Amino acid sequence: MSPETVTLLLVNIAGILERADESLLPGVYKEVGAALNIDPTGLGSLTLFRSLVQSCCYPLAAYLAVRHDRTHVIALGALLWAVATFLVAFSSTFLQVAVSRALNGIGLAIVIPSIQSLVADSTDDNNRGTAFGWLQLTGNMGAILGSICSVLVASTSFLGIPGWRIAFHLVGLLSVLISILVWVFATDPRFNEARFENPKNPFWSEIKEVIQEAKSVIKNPSFQIIVAQGVAGTFPWSGMFSFAPMWLELIGFSHETTAFLFTMYVVGNSIGGLFGGKMRDILSTKLPNSGRIMLSQISSGSAVPLAAILFLGLSDDPSPSKYCLTLFVMGLMTSWNAPATNNPIFAEIVPEKHRTSIYALDRGFESIVHSFGPPLVGILAQHVYGYKPTPKSSSDSTEMTTTMIDRENGASLAKAMNITFTVTMSACCAIYSLLYCTYPRDRERARMQALVDSEMLRMKDVGDDRQGDEYPGVVTVEHCKSDEKRLLAFESNL
Fold it and tell me: What residue ranges are annotated as transmembrane (predicted)?
């Protein structure tokens, strides 16, 4: 295989383990809560701690990815989250788990933007949506791996070690392995060793450059809109991914059935992401200014009725087939936004050198609010919809009473998750409408900037070639009049 193929393969495997690591803890919420005496609000706070640290570290991710080999950045991040995952497995108190998950966020933060920018750099406008669809599919394979691994072994033990701890050990070992493989075999196609042979700028000078780059990205109107919808749109999903396994078990499903149902959702999400990315590539030629935005509105809008059916419409007596079909359709329909709209548009509205920064900033802003999803669901379930913690000892209640409490608690969680979907996904769909006005203009501005940068680079190369000529201070530059007129006309309309 070519070095590029090996790199993309290893990067996708790293993405698989990144998603597997994220999905481990939600899959064993019930067992961790029972073992460490943590209520739903506390369980949601564990995700909050990790996400807050992760959000704060995205600027570091942008700095590392722009100035260092991105494959080495990915390898370092994988090693960091592996160490944090091992620490969770050894934790015996809520504080220890919280600190370990916070450290885990550092590793996850520096990996994700590098993976996304590598994919964007290796594709063009004709196949970028499909490439991001495949990235989402492989990432969802990791979510399936993490969910199945955690849920299936949660109720078991090995040599006296609880199953949920074993799950963290397994993912930690695999993460160390992929870290080594990425460091040794993967290559960054845009990493220029010669750049690092030259004298480096002072550290604070580089920091100022990163800040200026971030300001340039943040001022982009389309970026602001996509971040705004992401703030709303990722909120309910964080709550669902955190509490869905626990909710399914509370309403009567076994660990095995819960793992299967959640797997069907992720399978639907994977197929939907690939479908959305492919449709984006088709519509980008037929409806270049509106097609991909329409896809995202259909996808986000469909989440509201599907969530109502899943959480409120199905019978209290769980039928696996009904839940399986609903979860699969929900995953299929609501997974188009990232591969069809967000990620490809990010690659088009900024210069190529700013791609890592725009992906890092997007994840940073969205994760700040995204991290409050699980705690909010826990608070709503407990203090609004009547969730009651199960008695600590079996002697305090009969098995029948415990089952009734579990079902009531499951209904409380369902209502809490449904209200977050109804409010936030409606807002997400509405916010996307603003892109119809800003996206074409921002895309054209980025193209003009790329044209200017290319011309300036060519002028520099011509000047270097003419050193030693009779007139070394004179540089002849050829340019296209149509491009000049187009740029001047575009700037006059700003």
Answer: 73-95, 101-120, 132-154, 166-186, 225-247, 259-277, 298-315, 419-439
